[in-house]
Amino acid sequence: MAPYQIFTDATADCSPQWYKSLPPVGIVPMRVEIGGQEYLYGPDGTISVQRFYDLQKAGNYASTSQITPTQYFQSFEPALKAGNDVLYLCFSSGMSGTFQSAQVCVEELREEYPDRNIVCLDTLCASVGEGFLVCEAARRQAEGYTLEELSRWVTLHRLEVCHWFTVDVFDHLRRGGRVPAGTAVFGTALQIKPLLHVNQDGELAVVEKPRGRKQAIKAQLAKMEQSWLPEMGKTVVVGHGACPDGARVLQDAVQDRFPEATVLTADIGPIIGAHTGPGMLALTYWGNAR
Q1: What is the mean pLDDT of residues 22-27?
Q2: Would you say 52 and 270 are in contact if contact means Cβ atoms under 8 Å apart?
Q3: What is the pLDDT of residues 109-149, one digit of tens each?
Q4: Mean pLDDT within 228-256
Q5: Most buried one in 9, 80, 192, 238, CB count within 10 A?
Q6: Distance between the two ends of the chain, CA-based, in angstroms?
Q7: How far apart are CA 30 and CA 108, in angstroms?
Q8: What is the DSSP string of the chain?
């Protein structure tokens, strides 16, 4: 049985510390355009999280593009040449065509490397939710799961990764077509901080419209209280888009309400940040109600 390597893409937001003592996870970089210039985000990238949000705060809007076949080849081929199989855990198909593009590339690689097993799975997750699932998968790889066992495990449990997001401003959601222009103007005037989640189809959807950051955090905690499954794992992730103070408030609130939780934090990177803007707060955990 051949060894295998897990890969994901730069949409999977996490902290490098999460991967300590775990098998290596390959990250396929992604492209983001902001301020009239294109950058690469990921390994050997050309833009940092801080630089990206500095540009956004200066009034620039960002856009992203799908991973190209060449990028997939450059990422996967060294592992295949070394005799490893590949498990690619991909950004949700509900938000991007990345998964479909990856499948096309994987089919070509299977023809070129017929002795290798290449599995491409749709995580139906995004941002810190995707990073959370990838790290949990790597943990199980370390425990000895085979490629087939881990593929089944991811497919079985991916919809138990709960993502609850709140954003500080509507502008970036509006430009990405996530909310209508009229809703954005009205919401901004009323200081609404929309509560969004990744639904069963892997799509980003607005669920509630709390007014102000405090009410938004209360709404996130209420969702976790209703659905958390600590028996699946007690790790909880707080993600933020250049909003460390808000992240600390949310982290402290989670720890107070759920003292048995292990709360980790991570930056929301440029790929998701392009569509949500600075000030985003995310709460991710194992749960039974997405």
Answers
A1: 95
A2: yes
A3: 999 999 999 999 999 999 999 999 999 999 999 999 999 99
A4: 97
A5: 9
A6: 36
A7: 20
A8: ---EEEEEETTS---GGGGTTS--EEEE-EEEEETTEEEEESTT-S--HHHHHHHHHTT--EEEEPPPHHHHHHHHHHHHHTT-EEEEEEPPTTT-SHHHHHHHHHHHHHHH-TTS-EEEEE----HHHHHHHHHHHHHHHHTT--HHHHHHHHHHHGGGEEEEEE-S-SHHHHHTTSS-HHHHHHHHHTTB--EEEE-TTS-EEEEE--BSHHHHHHHHHHHHHHHB-TTT--EEEEEESS-HHHHHHHHHHHHHH-TT-EEEEEE--HHHHHHH-TT-EEEEEEBS--
Among the ranges given (91-100, 110-119, 128-137, 161-170), the one the predictor scored with the smallest mean pLDDT: 161-170
Neighbours of 132 (CB within 10 A): 30
Residue 55, CA atoms < 13 Å, CB-side half-sphere: 21
CA dist 82 and 78 (Å) reads 6
Token pair, residue 47, equals 């833009």
Q: Are 282 and 194 in contact (CB under 8 A)?
A: no
- Which residues 6+ apart lie within 8 Å of 155 measured at CB? 121
pLDDT level of residue 177 (50, 70, 90 thresholds)? low
